[in-house]
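Sequence in, structure out.
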Amino acid sequence: MSGDPAADLVARIDALLPQTQCTRCGYPACRPYAEAIANERVAINRCPPGGRDTIAALAALTGQEPLPLDPAHGIEGPARVAVIVESRCIGCARCLPPCPVDAIVGAAKFMHTVLAERCTGCELCIAACPVDCIEMHESTAHADTSDPKTLNRARYTARRQREERQSALRQLELAAKKTAAAARAASRPRAPHEP
């Protein structure tokens, strides 16, 4: 733990969440939801993938009363994974960006597939698919994994870090192009009528 009680509480809450990064709680990932719970801004019953067990653990940790799962955020059910129906996949690659843990592999104009052992069941890829070739099936992928939350969190963090590096690189490339364009403009000979 960090020694900062607020940060430690967030980390302990985050450790209890299932790390599906599904956004059903109303937050973009599990960590922001943990921060909101720690700051007493939201209820502990907004996580359908975690369900009753997670709500009970959060109640014990935070001292709040256990509440039934808020149906506005979904219903509790068995763990599920996305499956791409190969015969319907058109290779549009629209399912790749929303996957928070890089569980979908493929390239544009080629069929895609889901790595079941990595899929968190977040369902974020479904809305992105223009041909409805993604289905959710019951999962046993994590049955032999002792700590899927840690793996899910690590994959999500790795993806976010990669996206941040790519964004920073794009910003540097854009700045270099702007600098080069300005240098070219400054060095070109001016016509007599130009100031």
